[in-house]
Amino acid sequence: MSAMGIAAGPGFKKRPQFISAKADYRRSDFVFNRTQSLNMRAMPWERRLKPLRSWSDIGAYAGSSVIAAITLLSVILSSF
Asked: Bridge partners of 4?
C-alpha cells in the first residue's frame, strides 16, 4: 500500500516536491496470540460462554413446544 502527495506551500519556491510513503503489512501484524493461538484457546477461562445453537436446533425446540401445546390444549378441550 502506498500514498503519495505533493508538498507545495509558501516554503517551496521551486517545483513542488513529491512525498510518498509505503507500508508493508505482514499477516503476523494482524494475528493476536490471545484469539488465534490454539494453546490460549484451550485455557479454561476461554470456555465461559456456551456455544450458540443453530437455527435447526431452535426450530426443533419450537416445533416440539408447539406440538406439546396443541396436544395439551386438545386434551383439555376434549374433557369438556
From this structure: 20
Give the HSE-up count for residue 47: Cα atoms under 13 Å, Cβ half-sphere: 4
Domain total for the chain?
1
d(CA 69, CA 13): 85
Sign of CA dihedral 55, 47, 26, 19: positive
Cell numbers describing residue 20: 510518498
Q: pTM (2 decimals)?
A: 0.40
The Cα 23–Cα 3 span in angstroms is 9
Chain segment 20-40, per-residue pLDDT in tens: 677 788 877 777 665 557 777
CA–CA gap between residue 64 and residue 1 (Å, rounded):
55
